[in-house]
Amino acid sequence: MVSKTQLFILLFSTIGLSFFASSAWASPATLKCNSSRDQVWVYDSLNSFNVDAKLKCGQGVEIIERLSDYVKIRAQNGVEGYVPDSAVSGLPAFQPYRDSAHDVGLAAKQVQAVEVASDSARCFSGTR
User: Fold this and answer.
1) How confident is the model over 47-80, as pLDDT tens digits?
2) Which residues contact 126 (CB under 8 A, 6 or more apart)?
3) What are residue 40's DSSP bridge partners?
4) Could you identify which of 77, 87, 88, 118 might form a hypothetical disulfide with 40, taking C-beta atoms 3.0 to 4.6 angstroms apart as the criterion?
5) In-domain check, residue 12
6) What is the extent of the structural domain holding 66?
7) Total structural domains within the chain
8) What is the CATH number of the domain that holds 102?
């Protein structure tokens, strides 16, 4: 039978590991501003662009997701949102991920190849 002490240790070690694992997924970064601003606006959504928070320049953040012109960040105070990628220092050039499974041109070529193959099969079988 499991004692209460063992259960307590197991529970807190699991919580500790999940805390460290979640912070390991995000990349650390620092916010930067241009000469005319001293804060970076954090938008809650890229659809509405409502300002959720204003963070100070030089503040450390974690990068959660990278998009074309924006970066989803998590601030040290727990605020999550989107900032322009120009507001994050040291970002490499954005490389969009291309999944060939979702490529419309490739899918159209595959459908066309199936249709040609089925037409050829019908032609040779005489069912046309």
Assistant:
1) 999 999 999 989 999 999 998 899 999 999 999 9
2) none
3) 55
4) 87
5) no
6) 26-120
7) 1
8) 2.30.30.40
